[in-house]
Amino acid sequence: MQEANQADKSDIEVEKTLSHAFMMSGKYNEAEDTLIDMLTLAPGRAAAWVDLGLVYAKKGNSGAAVASFANGYRFSDNRQKTIEYLNGLVEKATDNSVREAAKRALGVTSTIP
What we know:
This protein is mainly alpha-helical. It has one domain (about 1-110): Tetratricopeptide repeat domain (Serine Threonine Protein Phosphatase 5, Tetratricopeptide repeat, Alpha Horseshoe). It is built from seven helices and no strands. The radius of gyration is 14 Å and the shape is globular. It starts with a helix and ends with a helix.
């Protein structure tokens, strides 16, 4: 997968798959870099913003996590689904930093037009 990414960094689907693999293996710095590369190419990609929020929360950067979750909401085609996802994180995430960032982001979403 990394070879495919190196061959064509403009393939957003490869970037998404690679970032997910990094996240699942706890390689949060690599996931962050890959997600930022992806968002540089497609800044309106809501799911990537939410994933970046998860990465930031895992890395202990609460402010960036909340902002990324809020951007996920802002760019979402289905804002209700995004709210439900964030509520699910608040209720079920095993990592307290993820729960708290999602909870704070839910407060921010009400201010986004």
